Amino acid sequence: MSKFEGNAITWFEIPTADIDRATQFYETLLAAQMLPFPGDEPCHMFPSGEGAVGGCLVQRLGQKPAAEGTMVYLNVDGKLDDALARAQSLNAKLLVPKTQVPGGYGFYACLIDSEGNHVGLHSR
User: Fold this and answer.
1) CB of 44 within 8 A of CB of 36?
2) Would residue 78 be called left, alpha or beta, if left means φ above 0 and alpha means ψ between -120 and 50 degrees?
3) Residue-wise pLDDT tens digits, 10-46
4) What homologous superfamily does CATH list for 3-123?
5) Do the Cβ atoms of 65 and 115 come closer than 8 Å?
6) Are 59 and 41 in contact (CB under 8 A)?
7) CA dist., res. 117 & res. 16, Å (int)
8) Nearest in space to 25 (alpha carbons), one of 108, 99, 71, 88
């Protein structure tokens, strides 16, 4: 089964006003290196495994960071406490502290990133 058959999401984009600032924020938050994507518009991809759902940071006309609207939850599996500590060091605004998901689906937290986007972090 391909990622297109088994997942509701196949790709996501998080808009930025400053791609370099956002890239540094997410590399620190996730303790992972973003991958530059070649093209006409600034784009840095989140690392993901083969066949996994991927996404990126983009800086383009017509897309603006926002705290309202669609939310993306990034996988920090097993490392939510570490990611939240890094978020605090980045002065990210914590909106929802580490919270258990009912039904045994792990934990999540929500914050405002360096660009003003409302994003979530999820861990089993």
Assistant:
1) yes
2) left
3) 899 999 999 999 999 999 999 999 999 988 899 999 9
4) 2,3-Dihydroxybiphenyl 1,2-Dioxygenase, domain 1 (3.10.180.10)
5) yes
6) yes
7) 8
8) 88
Q: Any residues with CB less than 8 A from the CB of 29 and at least 6 apart, and which? A: 83, 86, 87, 90, 92, 113
Residues 6+ apart with CB under 8 A from 89: 28
pLDDT confidence bin for 5, thresholds 50/70/90: low
Query: What residue has token string 């919270």?
Result: 99
At residue 31, the 3 state secondary structure works out as coil
Q: Is residue 9 very low, low, confident or very high in pLDDT (cuts 50, 70, 90)? A: confident
Q: Which residues contact 108 (CB under 8 A, 6 or more apart)?
A: 73, 80, 96, 98, 99, 101, 120, 121, 122, 123
How many CB atoms are closer than 10 A to CB 29?
23
Instruction: Kindly write down the DSSP assignment for every residue of 70-86, as one continuous string.
Output: ---EEE-TT-HHHHHHH
Q: Which pLDDT band, with edges at 50, 70 and 90, does 121 fall under?
A: very high
